Amino acid sequence: MNLAETQAGIKRGIVIVALLTFTFYFGRFLIVQGINVYRMINPPKLPVPASSFGQLPQLKMTRVQIEGNPEYILDTQNGNLPNFADRLKVYPLIQPQPTLLSEQKIKQLAADLQFTGASSKLTNSVFRWVDGTNTRTFQADAVTKNFKLETPPFRISNIVSTTSSITEADAIESVEGFLKSKVLLSQTDLANIAYVTIPTQVNLGQIRESKSTATSAKLLKVDAYIEIPGTKSSTRDPDVKYRVLGPNPKDSLISFTTTNNNNMAFKYPIVNFTYWEPDYTNGSEYYLTPIQDVWAAIQSGNGITSYVRTRSGDYYVPIERLAVSRIEIRDIYLAYYMQPEYTPYLQPVYVFEGPNFTAL
Q1: What pTM was estimated for this model as a whole?
Q2: DSSP labels for 178-239?
Q3: 90 within 8 A of 338, measured Cβ to Cβ
């Protein structure tokens, strides 16, 4: 074979190899695409959820009494119930245990908030401080680290009268920094917090919502909501997060009323902090009740209405009883429910929301 014949043979070989390679990969692409289409039409069945914790305890929820028999109208964007996965994880909540440093740490937290006097011991783990000079009180549990700081409205009015307004961004940054510096949450939860602000004022000696549309206020309440990222089996959207709600879904179990005063005694005149740490490594999947069944229960009045307000109502004035004839539901989503008292598990709930209405 001469040089020309050798070169021609090499060229043919290259062409044949390239054609076979292209055919192989193109055929493989068609097979993979065919498998994907088949799986979309006939998705593989997931194994039965482990339900490792057995029968779960019933959740304790507060209820707004709805009088009469209102008509429930589905008014979502497409007029249909949303699609949800058939399962979601239940997470055990870690029960706090006392340590040799529990009392020391809670006393340090009190000192950081400028409660420097002696405390009263209410129980084996609960302490109470009174700041007579600034008429404030601080009550905290050394084991759970849950606490409440209260300042009367007249004192708050005096504080904000001499300070400038605080912006939403500054209020959120301040609360976020406080939570991180005091190590009050797990690292996982600290990385997944959504903040909601409520402009606030003192009106006739009462804490009330400010109707101002400005992005700053003399007082800003900051609600910090933990959000739990979804898993592959619980959602088709990798970016979905499930918010952790308390008895009032519009009032987080973790909230700080903030001012622009740099003195720590006046920076957070009102704080409510309740947190039970989830054990995300030992969650177990449970079947969810089909959304159609839950919607039927809502329509028959068997849901729990946890939040209602009128158009002219105030965020800080809860409604315990209301007569309505029609309730529109515009958003339906899944969340987790955390009780103020310790309970062994963090359980998912469906949330039905309409204008100024929320049912679980």
Answers
A1: 0.85
A2: HHHHTT-S-HHHHTSEEEEEEEEEEETTEEEE----SSEESEEEEEEEEEEE--TTT-S-TT
A3: no
